[in-house]
Design a protein that fits this description.
Blueprint (H helix, E strand, L loop, with lengths): L3 E4 L3 E4 L2 E4 L3 H13 L5 E6 L4 E8 L6 H9 L11 E9 L2 E9 L1 H14 L2 E7 H5 L10 E6 L3 E7 L2 E6 L3 H12 L6 E6 L5 H9 L16 H9 L4 H6 L20 H21 L1 H4 L38 E6 L6 H12 L3 E6 L8 E4 L5 H10 L9 E2 L8 E5 L5
Helix pairs in contact: 1-3, 3-7, 5-11
Length: 417
């Protein structure tokens, strides 16, 4: 690797040179300029914490197929997971202790990045989150470590043997509390301080590239479908729908090969075309009664940075309003008698979009899990939290008094469904 591109939400650093961007078109121009100037023919693309999502999910299986891993991760990632904006690897931490390391990027942003790569004809040797590379310093450690990163952005990475468990901008106190509950630690995790001066980006990328097997090569696809993308771009196709397409192939763990074509597909399509032709005639005859057909999904816009953010999913029966969860303060208390239960619930809540989530132990153990909310907490949010507590037997809802420190308190009980 001779060059490194570090991508943030509104800024990009090409070999340390900072440039601001506000749209997908700006990103294309930056990549083209770097390529056309003859300075950057091949580069590693490192994604900042702002634009990437990294988490770890416990697995009860020793072997997984890619669709299975994606389904497991879908509940923890706050946007649509397609085949091109998601990657994973299976991690064994101990005997029978398996975890799925997940990395993902918002679909629309992934489209903008792949489009910039395709149109600039730049070769990207590796693309993935900065936290994955930073976490490599934890590989020799037998217990979790808290890596304090300070560069063009600042965040903390809780990692164990190279696996990223949590990437957070919260205070050390909050992350330490999470680490102790999650990993049953008696003391705070060891801290390692890293910055641009003592971080070997090139070495970390080279190690990732040499792993070989995609189940171990944790990085997002950056060139596998470049030719396909160039064709789609030239034909004006909707790239976002291509990214979000759910391809349920049965390839080996981590394999990103294209699914085999079904030999019956062509004949099926012929039948569909005939049916559509006949149906079209009937639709035209009944247009006055039925009204206009719904408009197709618009192509990716690139006139503002908002076009790079995911579009809220709309239900088929009624529109689902966008709910901001980062403003609510939540407390999760472990009353189950089982170590780590509050930490697991906290992980699920943060995957939904909650940011201010504290964990602790209840004064007494309880059987049923109880959710208590303040008057300002919308019912739809309470119901979302209930739906996320899969497997827990729930007690009747509680009400918090006015002026309570938290907007939502979850008391985790021992009884499971």
């Amino acid at each position: 690797m001779k060059h490194l591109i570090y991508l943030g939400k509104t800024k990009v650093w090409v070999d340390g040179r900072e440039t601001s961007y506000a749209s997908g078109e700006d990103l294309i121009a930056i990549f083209k300029q770097a390529k056309d100037a003859g300075k950057v023919g091949e580069a590693a693309l490192v994604l900042s914490n702002e634009v990437s999502f990294v988490t770890a999910v416990r697995s009860d299986k020793q072997r997984l197929l890619r669709p299975e891993a994606r389904r497991m991760a879908a509940g923890t990632v706050p946007f649509v997971l397609g085949d091109d904006n998601f990657d994973w690897r299976l991690v064994k931490l101990g005997e029978g202790d398996f975890w799925v390391q997940v990395v993902a990027v918002e679909p629309e942003l992934m489209v903008a990045v792949l489009k910039a790569i395709a149109q600039s004809k730049m070769k990207v040797s590796w693309m993935g989150p900065a936290s994955v590379l930073i976490a490599k310093v934890s590989e020799p450690h037998e217990t979790p470590v808290l890596i304090k990163w300070s560069g063009v952005e600042e965040f903390s990475v809780l990692a164990l043997r190279g696996m990223v468990d949590l990437v957070s901008g919260d205070s050390d106190e909050s992350v330490n509390a999470y680490a102790k509950a999650r990993w049953h630690l008696a003391v705070n995790p060891e801290q390692i301080v890293l910055n641009d001066k003592n971080m070997d980006w090139e070495g970390a990328v080279e190690v990732m590239k040499k792993k070989g097997d995609d189940a171990e090569l944790l990085g997002l696809s950056a060139g596998v479908r470049t030719k396909d993308l160039e064709t789609l771009i030239s034909e004006g196709e909707d790239l976002s729908s291509a990214i979000e397409d759910e391809v349920e192939d049965e390839s080996p763990p981590g394999e990103t090969g294209e699914p085999k074509e079904n030999p019956l597909k062509k004949w099926f399509l012929v039948g569909v075309i005939v049916m559509v032709w006949v149906g079209g005639i009937m639709v035209v005859m009944n247009m006055g009664k039925q009204g206009n057909a719904p408009a197709s999904r618009p192509a990716l816009k690139s006139d503002s940075i908002q076009s790079l953010l995911p579009t809220p999913i709309v239900a088929t029966t009624a529109a689902t309003p966008e709910v901001r969860l980062d403003g609510y303060k939540v407390s999760v208390l472990n009353g189950s008698g089982l170590a780590g239960e509050a930490g697991r619930v906290r992980e699920s809540l943060m995957g939904m979009g909650f940011v201010q989530v504290d964990v602790g132990n209840a004064s007494d153990n309880v059987s049923l899990t109880k959710i208590s909310s303040s008057a300002i907490m919308p019912l739809e949010v309470v119901n979302m939290v209930k739906d996320s507590l899969v497997g827990y037997s729930l007690d009747s809802d509680g009400v918090l008094t006015a002026g309570a420190e938290y907007d939502l308190i979850i008391l985790v009980g021992s009884t499971r469904k």
